[in-house]
Each structure stands twice: as C-alpha cells, then as structure tokens.
Amino acid sequence: MDKMLVHGGHRLSGTVRVSGSKNSALPILAATLLTREPCVIHHVPDLSDIHYMLQILSHLGAQVERASGTVRIQADHILTTAPYDIVRKMRASVCVLGPLLGREKEATVSLPGGCVIGDRPIDLHLKGFEALNAAHRVEQGNVKVFAGRLIGGTANLRGKLGPTVLGTDNVMMAACLAEGTTIIEGAAAEPEVVDLANFLNKMGAKIEGAGTERIIIEGVRQLHGAEHAVIPDRIEAGTFLVAAAIAGSEVTLRRCAPEHLGCVLDQLTTAGFHIESAADRITLRSNGTPSPLHITTEPYPGFPTDMQAQMCALLSRANGTSTIAETVFPQRFMHVSELKRMGAEIELEGSTVLIHGVSRLSAAPVMASDLRASAALRLAGLDADGITEVNRVYHIDRGYESIDEKLNALGAQIERVKV
Ligand code: EPZ
What we know:
The chain has helices at about 20-30, 50-60, 85, 95-105, 125-130, 165-175, 190-200, 235-245, 260-270, 310-315, 335-340, 370-380, 395, 405-410; strands at about 1-5, 10-15, 40, 65, 70-75, 105-110, 135-140, 140-145, 155, 180-185, 205-210, 215-220, 225-230, 250-255, 275, 280-285, 295, 320-325, 345-350, 350-355, 365, 385-390, 415-419. It is an alpha+beta fold. The protein folds into 2 domains: about 1-20 and about 230-419, Enolpyruvate transferase domain (UDP-n-acetylglucosamine1-carboxyvinyl-transferase, Chain, Alpha-beta prism); about 20-230, Enolpyruvate transferase domain (UDP-n-acetylglucosamine1-carboxyvinyl-transferase, Chain). The strands form 6 sheets. The chain has a 4-stranded mixed β-sheet, covered by helices on one side. Helix 5 (about 125-130) packs parallel to helix 6 and helix 8 packs parallel to helix 10 (about 310-315). The termini are close together. Ligand EPZ binds next to helix 1, helix 5, helix 6 and helix 12.
C-alpha cells in the first residue's frame, strides 16, 4: 500500500491540462451496452474507477480495447449479471442497471454498500424503473430489475436530499428503449448528465431537457454505435484551482470548461483570488491568505459536494471563520479529523463545519478515507510546515489522473513511496 510524501512550502506556477471527466465517462461507458454496434469514446481518463468499469463491461461480454485516452467497446452478446467482486469496489457500477434493463429487460447488480461519505441507497433508481413497468427484488445482496415490456412513464426522482445523478442516468438510459415517452421530473442537471444525454442522442436516442429538472425521453426501437469525446473533469479542475489558491503564485488550467465551475469560481473570487477565464482555460493568481467564506453544497448548479473537502483545506488558512454546510452527503466529513491533526481548527455542528483560520498548518501523518478527502489532504500538505505523509494513496488513484505528476510539474514536491 503506497503512501504519499508532500513537501510543504513549494510554490506552484505554470499550466496544467485537465483530464476527461470520471463522472461523465463512467455512465457513458455503461451506455455502450445499449447497442450491439461499436462505440468509440475519447478523453477517457486513466483511473482505477474506469478500469473497474471496463472490467465489468468485459465480464458482461463486451469487447473492450483501450489505446491511451480512447476506448472502443462493442457489446455484441451480453450477460445481465455484473460480477460482485468488481462491483463491490465501485459504487458507480450501479449505472449498468439502466442499459442492461433497457436492452435485455433484466439486470442484476450487487447492492452498493455504504461508503465513508455516507449511505448510498438506490431507492430512487428503483422508483424510476418502476415507472417504466419494471419490477425488482433483492436476493443474496443483489438487486435484480426485470420487465416483460418497458413502457414509458413519469417519475419524480428528487429525494429528500435532492436529485440523484446516477439515478437520473440509469432511468434515462433504460427509457431510451422503452415503448412510448418517459418524463423524469426532479432530474439531476449536472454537466455529466448532459454529456450522457448528448452521447445517447448520437446513438439515436430522442432526449430533450437534459440539464434541466425535467427530461423527456421518447423511446426508440434500437440504438446504433457512436463516437464521443467526454467533457473535461470539473472537479479535477476545481481541485487544481484550490491547489493554486493554497500554494500558487499563478496557475493556468487548459482544456477545462469554465461554464461548469460557476459557483466554484465565484467563491474563490469572493475569497480574494484573482481569476480570469476564457473558452477552455482558467487562470488563478494567488495573493496569499483567503478571506473567509460561507458555503452550502447543493446539486448543480450549486456548489458541488465533491469540492467540499478541498475547500475545507483552503479555508483552514483563511483570515477569519468560515462555514460549509453539506446538504448532499451530510456525513461527508472524514477529512476534518485529519486536517485537525495538521493543526486546523474546525468544529463540526451537525452537517456544518465552522473553520477558524490559522496562520499555517503543520505537516503530520494523515489517513485518506475517500477520493476527495485524499485530494484535500494533499492540498493541505502543499503549504504545510514540513513533510505531510498521506496514507492509503489508492483512494486518489480512483479519481485523479496523474495528479502527482501534474502537481510536481507545477512546482510541488510530492513523492510516492511503497510501504
Ligand atoms: C454522483 O454520485 C457522483 N458520482 C458523486 O461523485 C457526487 O458526489 C454525487 O453524484 C452528487 O453530485 C458519480 O457520478 C460516479 P446521488 P451518485 O445519487 O449519483 C441520495 C466523486 O467523488 N440518494 O446524486 O451516487 C444520496 O444518498 C463522487 O466523484 C438517495 O437517497 O449520488 C445522496 O445523499 C462521490 N436515493 C444524494 O441522494 C437514491 O436512490 C445524492 O446522491 C440515490 C441517491
């Protein structure tokens, strides 16, 4: 199990290229199950989560070829049961349910367990499938969804904690091959949902309204192969902006989508950082200590929950007290205790943190618990006094392509050591 040594105090400057979006690539790769014809997907990031998804698709019978960032998939004959030993490693595997149900009228996937960021139910996914005339049952830890005929219907997928991204994806994919029209109310509006809808429409689907809370899908008889380039990863981009804010002088992101980062750019500007953005680039100039912020995480276009941990790291050094209220995953604070080991002064009140800024964090051995917490601890180490040791490095490899190489190319000093 590797660990990461982050040498604090090195300033960052230069240009970094953002990779394709993990959270867009995963459902798009699953959507290739909806056709027997070959699909070609570009800008697929080299991540362990992507590797797991490609393993699942291969296990289901698809031919999978990968050449650097391009993946060619042809799901000619497929099985309908995803393998537990792979699915248990990645909760997003649940997004094969929709395409398998759409194409084969049945699908079996092991129930996603909880994870450190909180419970990960799929009740809203199943509610959407029911609206398509599909039934489900749980047996031996698996969920099986099945239908004699898939018939379009109306479902509201908004839960008590807001819309569901993968639930919207799943129901949208199944509805593409249902008889008649499906309306998803309370749909997730994330850019990754829009990217999936764009890919499905290239395959011959008839989807309107993606990016709004009301998506209309007119079922078709079959879908054909298509080629698509995945959108840039807005969370990777946001993570690098926070790295620049913590340790930068001036950093420019390339091949990113500023329009997907509105809330994050607004907050960093309010914190006092100078930001310039153009078509596919964003430049942040850091002039030291941030002003305190008051943030509430919300579904898109609100402030993303996937940036919450990174902002905790940044605001640990603010010149005042900040608050972050987490409304999407209320327990998503495993990084707080680790930041406190580095000298951060953070109080947790329910699902809100009060962050009292300190002048500088101090290096310490810390433990990563999930993907975004792992990134946050790395960012905190960039400007900490000493060498921060981040354990359980495998978390970050799930969602950030070559993050150490990218940060070191900007001037950081991060080394991975085997233990
Ligand atoms: C997606 O997860 C992302 N993952 C998450 O990113 C992201 O944090 C999340 O959306 C919210 O934006 C991928 O796209 C692969 P949800 P998803 O269904 O779809 C509750 C990362 O770090 N809920 O939108 O699984 C749920 O418990 C990951 O890249 C139900 O109650 O999240 C949560 O509180 C972490 N019932 C809220 O809704 C359901 O059936 C939002 O969950 C489904 C969800």
